[in-house]
């Protein structure tokens, strides 16, 4: 599981910034929100518009793209535009049981030099500078003339699948099953299945899981996925192609997906990603999580993920301050991001301010205790 991120000269984060996902000594929600390894099952990032919140989760998404995307990703495009430094630095730490994995990527955008190191339990497994590298994963193999924009670890994985290194295999399985939810399309994208499309999910899994979720939490609705749907007044035939229909308890008539509310459509598009990550492990990364959702639904989805997941994490960007509650997230899972002009973005972990477990965290945030709160005033 992801235990730490460090970024520097990345997007709006000009200075070295650390985001820690290891649990602190808070006792609240420990059983539900903390894994057996002491790693938090997720976090929420809040702050003003354009503060840099999304850039935190983009650093996670970038790792997935660099390792698994079919096309080569130009890391230079992520450089902080108002920094004189040419070096982008990314550090990711993962923990699985007693095993700790540290993966470092540095890229000199001026000289086009890639630096790449991998350590497992403080033992160097991969060491690269520029076009040359030595790998202890592949029988101490020495590499020369490496692609300046492509990660060597990516190439080693696709050639070996880490069959002789179960720790690395477990790590990559975790990454492969991770999902990034697009803020606008509300469609899951992950390395093992480029598009967690709703209809594709229904073709493979049917409606049972979704309808069980609706029944359990008393949504008062079910869905059908069929070529025809019939109510007491109307019948709709799609003439060969399966379509999604909502059936509300208090109506009974089929409502085509395109005619349903935005909130219901967003929810339905998101649920396959929730089910996938909870079942397989990995990270669920969601930008603009709260779009078109009622506060109670937001809270339900977070609680559902925390309760059902074992080795899985959810990272969300949101403007919904109701989620800043000791019944939803712990203070060590809450992070405020603010932009300070030419100094760039900064992040403050709520637990660093040592709020008491009984305090109203939402009220403390809106009063400015944790930073990251926009201030709009008349001139």
Q: CATH H level of the largest domain: which superfamily?
A: P-loop containing nucleotide triphosphate hydrolases
Shape: globular
- Proper CATH architecture of the largest domain: 3-Layer(aba) Sandwich
The CATH topology of the largest domain corresponds to Rossmann fold
Number of domains: 2
Q: Kindly estimate the percentage of residues that lie in beta strands according to DSSP.
A: 25-35%
- Give the proportion of residues in helices: 25-40%
Q: What CATH first level of the largest domain would be assigned?
A: Alpha Beta
Give the low-confidence spans: none
Q: In whole angstroms, how far apart are the ends?
A: 47 Å
Find the structural class using helix and strand composition. alpha+beta
How many separate helices? 9
User: What do the pLDDT scores average to?
Assistant: 93
Order of strands, main sheet, comes to 2-1-4-5-6-7-8-9
Major beta sheet summary: 8 strands, antiparallel
Give the beta-strand count.
21
The run of helices and strands is: EEHEHEEEEEEHHEEEHHEEEEEHEHEEEH
Gyration radius, in Å: 22 Å
């Amino acid at each position: 599981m992801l235990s730490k991120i460090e970024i520097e000269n990345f997007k709006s984060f000009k200075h070295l910034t650390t985001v820690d996902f290891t649990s602190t000594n808070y006792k609240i929600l420990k059983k539900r929100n903390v894994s057996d390894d002491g790693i938090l099952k997720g976090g929420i990032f809040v702050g003003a518009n354009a503060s840099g919140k999304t850039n935190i989760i983009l650093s996670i998404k970038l790792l997935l793209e660099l390792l698994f995307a079919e096309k080569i990703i130009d890391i230079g495009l992520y450089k902080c535009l108002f920094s004189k430094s040419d070096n982008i630095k990314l550090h990711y730490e993962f923990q699985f049981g007693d095993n700790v994995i540290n993966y470092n990527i540095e890229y000199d955008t001026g000289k086009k030099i890639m630096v790449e190191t991998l350590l497992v339990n403080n033992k160097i497994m991969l060491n690269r500078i520029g076009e040359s590298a030595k790998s202890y994963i592949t029988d101490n193999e020495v590499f020369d003339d490496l692609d300046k924009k492509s990660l060597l670890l990516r190439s080693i994985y696709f050639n070996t699948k880490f069959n002789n290194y179960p720790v690395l295999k477990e790590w990559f399985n975790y990454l492969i099953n991770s999902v990034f939810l697009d803020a606008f399309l509300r469609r899951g994208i992950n390395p093992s299945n480029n598009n967690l499309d709703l209809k594709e999910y229904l073709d493979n899994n049917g409606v049972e899981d979704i309808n069980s979720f609706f029944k359990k939490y008393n949504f008062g609705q079910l869905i059908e996925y069929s070529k025809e749907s019939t109510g007491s007044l109307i019948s709709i035939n799609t003439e060969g192609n399966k379509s999604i229909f909502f059936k509300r308890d208090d109506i009974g008539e089929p409502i085509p997906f395109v005619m349903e509310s935005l909130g219901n459509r967003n929810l339905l598009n998101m649920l396959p990603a929730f089910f996938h990550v909870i079942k397989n492990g990995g990270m669920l990364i969601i930008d603009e999580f709260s779009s078109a959702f009622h506060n109670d639904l937001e809270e339900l989805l977070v609680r559902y993920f925390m309760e059902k997941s074992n080795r899985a994490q959810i990272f969300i960007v949101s403007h919904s301050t109701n989620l800043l509650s000791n019944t939803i997230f712990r203070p060590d899972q809450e992070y405020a991001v603010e932009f300070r002009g030419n100094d760039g973005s900064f992040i403050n972990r709520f637990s660093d301010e040592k709020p008491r477990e009984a305090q109203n965290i939402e009220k403390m945030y809106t009063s400015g205790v944790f930073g990251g709160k926009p201030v709009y005033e008349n001139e």
